[in-house]
Amino acid sequence: MRKPILIGPILAAAALAAMLISAAPHFAKAQEKKEYLTDSEADKIREAMTPSERIKLYMDFADDRIKKLKYTLAHPSSFDKNRSEELNGLINAYSGCVDDAADQVGLAHEKQQDIRAGVKVLKAKTQEFLEYLQVLDKSGPELDTYKDTLDDAVEATQDALQDATKAEKDNSTPIRRKQ
Q: Is residue 53 in some structural domain?
């Protein structure tokens, strides 16, 4: 005698699988967006066609975070509430942008894509940012409230600058192919 097939558990499993499959794009989209980017910025990154374009965008966003940091430090009375959180958040967002720009250099290098324009921007901007961060590290107002985060940002900037310098050297020698 045959055993009866239990349709209830099979239907439940199929329904669960269908729900997971339909929810997957939403989870992927949520994971793609970095918490320190606005929706508009995340869209620009997704729409950028080349790693070089993404590097430039990340550096524009990092520049924006530095400008906001300078403004916040210059106007202490405007940000009395959660000031420490605001300062640390801006510095963390800056670090995230610089880290992601440097990651794009590594990915493009692995795929042997032309990123010379992006690397040029990355190198120039990280040098500029590093100078400001080092001044801030020596004599920044309220330094004790963001010192650890600032140290991380300086390290991220130095790493990105090294990556840009290395990529610049690697891309400067043309590849010669046999004819």
A: yes
